[in-house]
Amino acid sequence: MALAFLQCEAGTGGVDLEDRFKALEMMLTTEMEMAVQPLRDRVQVLEEKLGLAENLSETDGLSVSVQVTVASPKNMHDVISMKEEATDKSRPSYLKVRSVDSQDVDAVTEDDMQVTFNRDIWTYFALVGLGRIGSWDACFTFILALVSLAMQAAFVMILMSEFFLERPFEEKVELARIWRTSVAHDSRHMDLAQTSLTSRVCRGDGALIVSTTQAELVEEINKFLGLGLDDFEPSSFSPGTMLSVLCILLWCMRVYKDLRRMGLVMEAWSWIPRSDYTIMNENFGFTELSENRFYGFGSILFVCFAMDCLLLVAGIRLLASTTSISSLILDAVALQAILDIDDFMFHALAPLRARLLIQGLEPMQVKISQIRSQVESGLNFCLLASALVLPYLFMLAPLGLSMQAVKYELCGGTQEFVVAYNQDIQMTYALRTQSERGIELLPSEVAVEEFKHSSEALPRYMVFSATSQAFDTDQVRTMAEEASTFPICFETQVLQETGRVYRDPVAMSLIEPRFQSMVARFGRNATTCEEMQDLCYLPEARMLRYLCGATCGCASAGTSTWYKVARQGCSESCLKEAEAETACTDVAATSEGWRSFWMNYVPVVSSFFGQNLAQANMLTMLNQTVQAMLSEGCPRLLVNDTDFVTSVKWCEGFPDLFRPVAFLCPETCGCKASLSGFCPSNCLSDAVHGSTNSSNA
Fold first, then answer.
1. Do residue 192 and residue 308 come from a single domain?
2. Is 429 contained in some domain?
3. What's the whole-number mean pLDDT along residues 285-303?
4. pLDDT tens-digit readout, 220-243
5. In the chain, how many domains are there?
6. Distance, CA of 196 to chain centre
7. Is residue 88 part of a domain?
8. pLDDT, averaged across the chain
9. Which residue range(s) make up the domain with 41?
10. Nearest 10 degrees: Cα torsion 666, 669, 670, 675
11. Which of 388, 400, 394 lies closest to 241 in space, CA to CA?
12. What angle separates helix 325-339 from helix 341-349, to the nearest 10 degrees?
């Protein structure tokens, strides 16, 4: 009965069920064909390219169904299998299994690359009107975008302006030349150690109070080029140049990163189909774009791209013009902060709803072929080479040459001299100076060092002036004025036990600071005049002769008359004591005073005039005169009565340099026969007696 029932059911409804099965089969077959066809075409193209195609024919009475399994191109193998199935339900058999290398697939296919939108404030303009965001959030986001653009534009304008960048280093060459010829060798800027301003600047003297700009410039050049104090040619390794190249390369890579990212976004944006309306898929990705949205967001990307290019150029100019090594890295970091203004705005101030919309955007797709990748690699290589070579050739190398020129103008040539111009006689005079200040302190520096922490009321190395007017007078008082100030010979009357005011406190308060200052001047650790006796005939020993008149011969008769004048330190009181002891007779040719005077003639006169007479053409004649004086004694003054160099008469003396030789040869100089003012006072009585006898006769 069941069979009959089934047959009845089949007889009555079998026709409809069979029709339904056929319709379902046709629908499934069509869908399968549509799904498999792209894979079949791809396999066919692949086999043709690889030479693997085979003639496959369908047998009569057989229907062919193809089962294709294609692995991802990223896998090592793609497996393609085709399965033939007979209509009579015969056992299926695999017609073909083929393994293909992934490199072969990449050679003929293009890979899709996901490109995410930039997480910055500008991406919001791609979503205007698409997401649920409040009107105030949208307005504030727009304001942030304008502020970001304005800030970057302002930075670009400032960085590109001539007011921000340092003056071209080429201009400093002429300024250095002017400084060197007008200020650097001015005697007014020479320090107490007789060091010229040029030497102090080029040696990096940290105690400078003038020309500090030039000193900093020299130090900056030395650090940048890796130069020593006396070097003008850099070595193969220049620290500043190398660091500049690295900072510029770092900056370029940072900008290239943004430019490449924006370039990919622009490319992916251009591949999205356009229509009258913008259509989003279920993953919040763009399926189609309206023309307005496409060109609007594309224009914004172009503006951002152009702004980054301007920042790239401005940053390179800034880094290439920075001559301070310590500022290079700081400038590079500051430039990166300018480039990240968009990110700062997005993460710090962007509305949360806008951030959620931007973060939820589905990445776009860009097709990347092997040829395109190789072309891009070549372009990147060119950009890398340009970032290394172009700034060095056109900016850093000329900067290094300009730095060398500036240092040569500042410090090249002879540094150890100063000049002063005499307006009255219209002549420039020069003085050779020390190359650098010594380690030892100067007398004035010793005085300050000793007194600044002293608890004593009276200083040891200096004398305080009573008033400001006295201070001004003391600064310019000459040695002749100093020697005539106190009517006392210090050594004979104060320092010696036979003196009238031996160790008087008031007199000692005058002597002690002067003696200690003089001792510090010569670097001695002396406590008595006898310990300094060997220095008495030095031209600069004026204070020594002033304080130690007896030891240096100022108060002694019969000594050499060199420096026995007030202008060279001998006080009037000491000279009067010597005059009182002088006999009115000529000294012998072998006496110590006579021989010392003529043996020291050439060096003393050379030192006084600043000219080495030993190299003069007149040296032969001068030596002949000296030898004649040494051999013949005082009578030779009757033959050579005038000094050829100073044009003064020997007997009358020279107030700036030596006492009248009449104190050694009073008889030859006629002191007994006349009342000449240059003669010793002891000869005046004889001269008066002689003149009286002549008148009586």
1. yes
2. no
3. 92
4. 999 999 998 888 988 878 899 999
5. 3
6. 23
7. yes
8. 82
9. 33-109
10. -80
11. 400
12. 50
